[in-house]
Design brief:
The chain is of the alpha/beta class. The protein has two domains: 2-287, no CATH class; 314-497, Fe-S hydro-lyase, tartrate dehydratase beta-type, catalytic domain (fumarase). 31% of the residues lie in helices and 24% in strands. It is built from 15 helices and 19 strands. A five-stranded mixed barrel has the order 14-15-16-17-19. Strands 6-2-7-12 form a four-stranded mixed sheet. A four-stranded mixed sheet has the order 8-11-9-10. Helix 1 crosses helix 4 (90-102) and helix 2 (26-38) packs antiparallel against helix 3. The N and C termini lie far apart (59 Å). The mean pLDDT is 96.
């Protein structure tokens, strides 16, 4: 009979969550580097370069790969011969490990979990509770896989109940383009096929814990129906031309993972969950001999990539910018931003709208006129940091506020000049951008630590009680962004994939 101590389990969960916050799996780095070397679209190649540089920086500095340090999911498989030396449930022990990991003083992780999802959505402050799946299995050990899933990719999860003879391939190829770029491709797509609705979703999530091995599968040749489906989807999804960050390119997915199980004769449940550029998962086993700590990888596993300034990159002073200057920018242009920007995301935008609707003034010091806003919720700083990892959040969530933010003050708006975030904008935002001759700039999702190094000063200017969703003012120096939507409302997220889908088809 194996006895598992409470402290060993909690310590192991805490250690694993800290580990995955700053170490990418080697298989992911290898696969992303190969995709980087193959990529022909300069914008997509640059995005992958930033992801790889960011990854190495995080491994060296032991700081989060992404500012969204995720909601924790744990798959706990308990041997039937295991006995617990604990006064806590498995859920409680996982939560305690999460609490300690996310409040670690050397590497604090962002608390993103809110209680009462239907409101009021109040942050729990320690990123608990986790989502825990417990399975009883033969044996005398406890097998644990932990993952931290960012909201940008989790929000793109899809489920469908197909008819038994419907095409899974057709559904995936129809659905992936509707997911946009908020999941920060290139990453993995996990599919769960069969069972019931909830079983399919859990299988899809768990499939993302497997290593990337699609090229080994292609080399040996697929044999089973699932293997053949994986290869077919891998090739056809990449032929969509969506590319890194949705900019258009050769690689949209690094692998397709599939778990399946028996289902009802009348049913074909299919779940699809993407994993983003911040691929975070780790596996450990407890056998009663003490806690389990994962060995740190070698920095030699990371490629050394540098980015050089080119003549095509435009340096922009946001403190002295004119309307004529922003109207000269074209979709796909690379900019280096310097100057002061304000931040704000979901909760801040809602608070602003509530104030305007009630006829109240904005807090002192908050003036968006002729300024740029950055959609971000940063990690708390440590040591000599100005701010912790501070990558962009998905911009489409702020689309419904675009007119309010961009319209001139004479029209009842706030006179914002431009927005910075990740992924595409919807039709509502595009119309507001075009009407107001504003712009939308894209920072790379999955490069949070790299972006944070461009932030030289930071201060909270409003809504401090919102934590990471407060409004900050950042002073930035050479912050890299891409023009995603110009003042005419033309979007690189619409044109890029269209162009590269054709190029890929023509090259076949």
């Amino acid at each position: 009979m194996t006895v598992i101590k409470k402290s060993d389990f909690i310590d192991s969960v805490e250690s694993a969550l800290q580990y995955i916050s700053y170490y990418h799996p080697k298989d992911f780095i290898d696969s992303l580097f190969e995709a980087y070397k193959r990529e022909e679209n300069p914008a997509a190649k640059d995005a992958m370069a930033q992801m790889l540089i960011n990854s190495r920086m995080c491994a060296e500095g032991k700081r989060p790969i992404c500012q969204d340090t995720g909601i924790v999911t744990a798959f706990v498989k308990i041997g039937m011969e295991v006995q617990w030396d604990s006064d806590m449930t498995v859920q409680q022990m996982v939560d305690e490990g999460v609490r300690r990991a996310y409040q670690n003083q050397d590497n604090p992780l962002r608390a993103s979990i809110v209680q009462n999802p239907v409101g009021p959505r109040v942050n729990t402050k320690d990123n608990t509770p986790a989502v825990v799946h417990v399975e009883m299995v033969p044996g005398d050990k406890v097998d644990v896989t932990v993952a931290a899933k960012g909201g940008g990719s989790e929000n793109k999860s899809k489920f469908v109940m197909l008819n038994p003879n419907d095409s899974i391939v057709d559904w995936v190829l129809k659905t992936v383009p509707t997911m946009g770029a908020g999941w920060c491709p290139p990453g993995m797509l996990g599919l769960g096929i069969g069972g019931t609705a909830e079983k399919a979703m859990v299988m899809a999530k768990e499939s993302l814990m497997d290593p990337i091995n699609i090229h080994e599968l292609i080399e040996k040749g697929p044999e089973t129906p699932v293997e053949k489906l994986r290869v077919e989807l891998y090739e056809k999804v990449n032929e969509l031309g969506i590319g890194a960050q949705g900019l258009g390119g050769l690689t949209t997915v690094l692998d397709i993972k599939i778990n399946d199980c028996p289902t009802h004769a009348a049913s074909l449940p299919v779940a699809m969950i993407p994993n983003c550029a911040a691929t975070r998962h780790a596996h450990f086993e407890l056998n009663g001999s003490g806690p389990s700590f994962i060995e740190a990888p070698s920095l030699a596993d990371w490629p050394v990539i540098t980015q050089e300034k080119s003549d095509n990159i435009k340096e922009v002073n946001l403190d002295n910018i004119s309307q004529d200057e922003i109207e000269s920018w074209k979709p796909g242009d690379t900019l280096l931003l310097s100057g002061k920007i304000l931040t704000g995301r979901d909760a801040a935008h809602k608070r602003i709208k509530d104030l305007l609707d009630s006829g109240e003034s904005l807090p002192e010091g908050v003036d968006f006129e002729n300024r740029f806003i950055y959609y971000v919720g940063p990690v708390d700083p440590v040591r000599d940091e100005v701010v912790g990892p501070a990558g962009p959040t998905t911009s489409t969530r702020m689309d419904k506020y675009s007119e309010m933010m961009l319209n001139s003050k004479s029209e009842g708006g706030l006179g914002l000049m431009g927005m910075i975030g990740k992924a595409e904008r919807g039709d509502t935002a595009l119309a507001a951008i075009k009407k107001n001759k504003a712009v939308y700039l894209m920072a790379v999702g999955g490069a949070a630590y790299l972006v944070s190094k461009a932030i030289k000063e930071s201060r909270v200017v409003a809504f401090e009680e919102l934590g990471m969703e407060a409004i900050y003012e950042f002073e930035v120096k050479d912050m890299p962004v891409t023009v995603a939507v110009d003042t005419n409302g033309d979007s690189v997220h619409k044109t890029g994939p269209q162009i590269w889908k054709v190029k890929i088809q023509e090259s076949k």
